[in-house]
Amino acid sequence: MRDMEEKFPRALWVRLIIYVAVGHLFAAFIYLLFTLGAQNQ
After folding, report:
1. DSSP reduced 3-state for 1
2. Residue 9, helix vs strand vs coil
């Protein structure tokens, strides 16, 4: 487990978590737009 932490520094994990969180929020926003647009028709 120690060599895994040396391969991936903490900054890389933080950046990865931020990218995943922002990506999911963006996908949820687009999905919400499509859902509301389909309901309005």
Report:
1. coil
2. coil
